[in-house]
Write a structure and sequence with these properties.
Pfam families: Haem_oxygenas_2
Number of strands: 0
Shape: globular
Organism: Kitasatospora kazusensis
Number of helices: 12
Largest sheet: none
CATH class: Mainly Alpha
Structural class: mainly alpha
Helix content: over 70%
Radius of gyration: 18 Å
Protein name: Iron-containing redox enzyme family protein
CATH topology: Heme Oxygenase, Chain A
Length: 237
């Protein structure tokens, strides 16, 4: 008789029911027809997402400090975040460099308000960190790092777009880094002394992230980032 799956294995099992839609959205995003223009949208939009990564983790680390030694999860989570913050610092700058190498304005993402579809992906993490427990952020991180680009993707994108290889450093770097980060995070989640509510919070955060990321990539592929979602529409829209 085999034992129950580890927490990380159980989490990935739950995600396996939602990830096919995300994979389909990514495949549509990377289709060769019209890819050069879509890739520019992808870089700008991902900068809006990735520039929130370090601030989110810094907020979670501050909340861990507020929770203090009476919370058995806060201490190890703060230590993990401190290390991961340094690993992720500057990744948003890679995207700006990619934009410049693609012949696009790297200042563009810094001048515009991120669209609602980006806020729907990132925003709930701020709420859960502040108003439940910072451990919820591990669900978000799990999804982002469990969907690393394939090792061959940067070269394929360069061939399909005709853009220089320097325009794909973010895709290339994450193809190498995220696999290791994902395995490390799974081991960390399995070591944490989570209570049932905290384990559920990680899963809820992860499932929301998959669904929101699927919508985001579908919108990038369609060039339709600012149209309100059905829930946000007024009766006359």
């Amino acid at each position: 008789m085999t034992g129950a799956p580890s927490r990380s294995a159980a989490l990935h099992l739950k995600l396996s029911f939602a990830t096919p839609a995300l994979n389909t959205a990514m495949a549509n995003l990377w289709r060769p027809e019209g890819l050069t223009r879509r890739y520019g949208r992808y870089l700008r939009t991902m900068h809006e997402v990735i520039r929130a990564s370090v601030p989110l983790m810094e907020l979670a680390a501050r909340r861990c400090a507020e929770l203090g030694p009476d919370d058995p999860v806060a201490g190890p989570l703060a230590a993990y975040l401190a290390e991961h913050i340094e690993e992720e610092r500057g990744h948003d700058d890679w995207l700006l460099a990619d934009l410049a190498a693609a012949g696009l304005d790297p200042r563009g993402p810094l001048r515009q308000q991120p669209p609602p579809v980006v806020a729907r992906l990132v925003g709930p993490q701020y709420y859960w960190i502040e108003h439940f427990h910072p451990v919820a952020l591990l669900g978000y991180i799990t999804v982002l790092e469990s969907n690393a680009p394939a090792p061959w993707l940067a070269e394929q994108l360069a061939a399909d777009t005709g853009l220089p290889g320097a325009a794909f450093q973010t895709v290339s770097h994450h193809a190498v880094l995220d696999t290791g980060h994902s395995a490390e995070l799974a081991r960390f989640i399995d070591r944490l002394p989570l209570d049932p509510a905290q384990e559920t919070a990680i899963a809820v955060s992860a499932l929301h992230t998959v669904n929101a990321a699927t919508e985001l990539f579908n919108r990038i592929a369609l060039g339709d980032l600012n149209t309100p979602s059905r829930a946000e529409r007024t009766p006359d829209q």
